[in-house]
Amino acid sequence: MDYAASFYIVAPELILSAAALILLLVAAWVRDAAKIVTIAAVAALFGATFWTGHLLFDPSFALSDDAFGGLYRMDDFGSIAKLLIYLATIACLIVTPRYFEHRSAYRAEYPVLLLLNAVGMGMMVSAVDLMTLYIGLELSSLSSYVLASFLRDDTRSSEAGLKYFILGALASGILLYGMSLVYGFSGTTQYLGIRIAFADGLSTGALFGVVFVLAGLAFKISAVPFHMWTPDVYEGAPTPVTAFFASAPKVAAVAMLVRMAIEAFGAQTDAWQQIVIFAALASIVVGALGAIGQDNLKRVLAYSSINNVGFILIGLAVATPEGISAVLVYLAIYVVMTIGAFAAVLMLRDREGEQLETFGDIAGLSTVRPVVAWGVLLLMFSLAGIPPLFGFWGKFVVFQAAVQADMIVLAAIGIAASVIGAFYYLKFVKVMFFDEPGRDAERHSPAGHWAVLGICMVIVSPLGYLLTPWLGAVADRAAAALFIVV
After folding, report:
1. What is the pLDDT of residues 2-24, one digit of tens each?
2. C-alpha to C-alpha distance for 247 and 206, rounded to whole angstroms
3. Distance (Å, rounded) from C-alpha 9 to C-alpha 183?
């Protein structure tokens, strides 16, 4: 085993791990180090981003490479997912400090937790062995439980952390039990070995293992019927933490599920395809209908997340390179829209600095914060998939992949159900532009918030279509990497 080559490949995780350990010591020994630690954490994430980009476009890794005896794989698929994870984490760190500083609750441990979470997510998307997958998943999950309950004096935050921990532990147990069954009936924990062992068919026990694994992973992406934790945790967790949960971990969980389904269970597509189709359609419908009666903005965005997971799963259900490419394109656009939406929500504060959290709070916002209101309008229309905004392209490529695979009924139902979701996105516009003003909103926001919101607005605007040739080509390369059977 060439350890030098292995360490070269896992350099992004090593950078983030070293930075997290060093910054943890700084947080323990230096008083009021939160600002310094945050800046250093952003720098470390940028370093990991640049190294991942280097690996992505390094011709010597065109056909991927394995590290540590086949426990970890560096390929285009994992690199694309990690780029999205790191950039989303950077954006979340930029918009975080002001929220906690108003409550005098920002501590240097927060960016350290995000770094450790990013390490776990990087391991998840590059894992090609069940043991590596579980270690990365638990590293990410444990830090997420702490983040959800970061406001120790806030009852809602503590409740969100406890709910997330209990349900997350249950999902981890289900996943681990499924892994044990898969290992027992395949005789290996490596994805390639599992694929070969299951190539001739699945026994009843192996099928149960596949179902349990998919159920555990469905919890992580908050797909129906394992979505019950999402609205409560999103509402109760601090808003910057909710923004993080809705973006970076979502990418990691979806990428982990896609790699598991295509590489490990790819020889038995029929065994899991119907499960994914049900989860996709159920997530679209439940996400759309569940949001209609909500008044809290974060709960609405939680159901929006469930709804969007449904569209992503349509691409996975297709189980072709075109479908996986569509999943990656949709994920990239979804991350931008979600980060932009939560950046706008974080900018909505009253004169006393308290967050505006309900539709009643943002009534008439266009008369007080017109730029923010127009930004929210742009992002909501994009999430609804209304052309010519870039969000339409994400839905288009997913449905196109389904039609090309002769899943016309699936595409038709998905398109019809997406119309339902447009209702609650339009509600944002109606309340902000046509209702009488509610609470008086603060008129100033930090430059970092404006930068994140501005970048997201430009990308989701029609200008985003300029990225489609490059984004499509990279997504095609990444999807093709999963279908290379060594």
Report:
1. 778 888 888 899 999 999 999 99
2. 32
3. 27
Token pair belonging to 49: 């981003």
| 127, 257 Cβ separation under 8 angstroms | no
Give, as one character, the DSSP assignment of residue 442.
P
Q: Cα(223)–Cα(229) distance, rounded to whole angstroms? A: 10
Q: What are phi and psi of 364, to 5 degrees?
A: 70, 20
Q: How far is residue 92's CA from residue 242's CA, in Å, rounded to a whole number? A: 10
In the structure, what pLDDT confidence band is assigned to residue 225 with cuts at 50, 70 and 90? confident
Residue 321: cis peptide before it, omega within 30 degrees of 0 = no
Label residue 401 exposed, middle or buried (CB < 10 Å: 0-12, 13-18, 19+). Answer: buried
CB-based contacts of 317, cutoff 8 Å, min separation 6: 273, 276, 277, 280, 323, 402, 407, 410
Q: Residues in the chain, how many?
A: 486
Over residues 318-354, the pLDDT tens digits come to 988 999 999 999 999 999 999 999 998 888 887 776 7
Q: How far apart are CA 477 and CA 321, in angstroms?
A: 9
> For residue 63, what pLDDT is reported?
54
Tokens coding 123: 């391991």
User: Distance (Å, rounded) from C-alpha 355 to C-alpha 385?
Assistant: 28
Quote the pTM value: 0.93
Tokens in use for 474? 């990279």
**Torsion, Cα of 110, 111, 114, 116 (10° steps):** -100
> What is the Cα–Cα distance from 365 to 434, expressed in whole angstroms?
9
Give the Cα separation of 25 and 184 in Å (integer): 42
DSSP state of 237: S
Give pLDDT, residue 486. 44
Residue type at 18 in one-letter notation: A
Q: Say how far residue 414 (Cα) sits from the centre of its chain.
A: 21
Among left, alpha and beta (phi > 0; psi -120 to 50; other), residue 70 is left
Token pair of 16, please? 């983030």
- Joined tokens for residue 368: 């007080």
Q: How many angstroms separate the Cα of 317 from the Cα of each of 26, 56, 246, 281, 380? A: 46, 26, 22, 11, 26
| 199 phi and psi angles, rounded to 5 deg | -65, -30
